[in-house]
Design brief:
Elements (H helix, E strand, L loop, with lengths): L9 H7 L5 H10 L6 E5 L5 H7 L5 E6 L2 H7 L7 E5 L12 E7 L8 H10 E17 L4 H9 L12 H7 L3 E9 L2 E3 L1 H9 L12 H14 L6 E13 L1
Parallel strand pairs: 1-2, 1-4, 2-3, 4-5
Antiparallel strand pairs: 5-8, 6-8, 7-8
């Protein structure tokens, strides 16, 4: 299923994408408390979540992504306890039982297929943790921008999160002790950064060059119409799901 050419929007991604809130990392470390753990951060992109994980210096983190262009950006901020590897989730270049945990921050919807889940289970140790984090828009300017783009382009766009329920998917793949918790983490932007943020979405690759200016004008109006008390706010529900092999 691995689609979404993020390499083409990597500069926008680096400029405005934000890491997971501290509560999410705290929850992960409660699940994975042992020192010296080896973690695969799958779908790591430019390494935002990888560096958050590696901030704990007693672990070793491998950032894996199918897009080498994204990884080149990640490597511009090296850390001693991080390595980056081009890796497809459905054909991971790792040994069985190599990792204590596999994480997927805002990425699992791109590789929720049966082959990828089988590979994730294969590379985890017995009792290993699969930890999935998703930012779900629940209001504000990001909620409906895809629909407006579809009307502008007069066609349907990709929707990788359609029928996407991580808890059910992970349970069906045979993980045990599957748990879910949700927190609210709204993000405030300037108008300029809000427009860049929209362009960091994989769906922006589907906007033809000749339509980009018109699309940006449309997005600017949409953003300003959805201000909250004069502020541009992306209203986000952070959903965390974990399971054990």
């Amino acid at each position: 299923m691995q689609t979404g050419n993020f390499g083409q929007v990597r500069d926008a991604y680096v400029a405005v994408r934000r890491g997971a809130p501290p509560e999410v990392l705290d929850h992960f470390w409660q699940l994975l408390s042992e020192s010296g753990a080896k973690i695969l951060d799958l779908g790591c992109g430019t390494g935002i979540s990888t560096r958050q994980l590696a901030a704990r210096k007693d672990v070793h983190v491998i950032g894996g992504d199918v897009d080498g262009n994204m990884l080149e950006k990640a490597k511009e901020l090296p850390e001693e306890n991080i390595d980056y590897v081009v890796a497809r989730a459905d054909k991971l270049p790792f040994d069985a039982g190599e990792y204590d945990a596999v994480t997927a921050f805002s990425a699992f919807h791109w590789f929720r297929d049966e082959h990828s889940l089988r590979e994730i289970r294969r590379v985890l140790v017995d009792g290993g943790i699969f930890f999935v984090v998703n930012n779900n828009d629940v209001g504000g300017y990001r909620m409906d921008f895809g629909k407006k783009l579809e009307r502008l382009l007069n066609r349907s766009l990709s929707h990788p999160k359609r029928n996407y329920e991580p808890k059910q998917i992970i349970k069906a793949a045979g993980f045990s002790n599957v748990r879910k918790f949700v927190i609210r983490n709204d993000e405030e932007f300037s108008l300029e950064n809000a427009l860049i943020h929209i362009q960091s979405a994989g769906v922006w690759n589907e906007v033809p060059k000749e339509k980009e200016k018109e699309a940006l004008d449309l997005m600017k109006r949409h953003i300003l119409e959805n201000r909250i008390d004069g502020h541009i706010v992306r209203q986000v529900e952070v959903q965390v799901v974990s399971g054990i092999t």
